[in-house]
Amino acid sequence: PRALYTRGSRRPRPQIGDRMTQIFLPFIGAFAPHDARAAEAAQRTAALIERHGVAAFGRDPRIGHVTASGFVLSVDRRETLLMHHRKLDRWLQPGGHCDGETDVRAAAAREVAEETGLAEARLLPEIFDIDVHEIPARGNEPAHLHHDVRFLFIADPRTAAPGNPESHALAWMDAAALPRVTDQASVLVVRRAMRA
């Protein structure tokens, strides 16, 4: 695959639909976007990291920050595990802040284990998706952007997933059930990795 972008070069617009097209993200590596939303998010995330370096992986709401998450799929890929997020009151994949960690794969694995209790979920190392979304203002923290780098994980749905206090509930859902709990394209994207 050819890299479209290297540090210091002008970032050309990717040809969407061409999985051979890759966008390079400093500290993270190459990503082959599957649609225009993911390509734009990857370019915005690369620009954030170029501008702020390691600080982009922290929690500074003034600049936004890189986060990491994981879509946990059943072994047969017919279901995904979502959590009903307590603060945001939405069904989402497990994920969170990198807290200064530039290894987004390790951050995603940590978040999946912490938020689901599935310490044995297997990480698939290729970046699955990148999404940029706004987090609403809360308390003294202003609204800011999360540049979320997403991975796929595989786990056995028969394994207990106790969750943690960050969620109201955890639920395994098939692709048909997802639109009943969310209309967010950034969550529904997991259907690309699922089997009907």
Write a brief caption for the model.
With about 200 residues, this protein is of the alpha+beta class. The chain is about 20% helix and about 35% strand. Strands 4, 5, 6, 7, 8, 9 and 10 form a 7-stranded mixed beta sheet that branches.
List keywords for this structure.
196 residues, alpha+beta, disordered N terminus
Helix/strand structural class: alpha+beta
Number of helices: 4
Estimated radius of gyration:
16 Å
- Termini separation comes to 29 Å
Shape designation: globular
Strand percent estimate: 25-35%
Low-confidence segments? 1-18
What average pLDDT do the residues reach?
Answer: 89
Q: Helical residue percent?
A: 10-25%
Major sheet description: 7 strands, mixed
How many beta-strand segments?
10
- Order of H and E elements: EEEHEEEEHEEEHH
Notes on the protein architecture:
Helix content is 19%, strand content 34%. It is an alpha+beta fold. The model is unreliable at 1-18 (pLDDT under 50). The strands form two sheets. Strands 4, 5, 6, 7, 8, 9 and 10 form a seven-stranded mixed beta sheet that branches. Strands 1-2-3 form a three-stranded mixed beta sheet, covered by helices on one side. It has four helices and ten strands; from the N terminus they run βββαββββαβββαα.
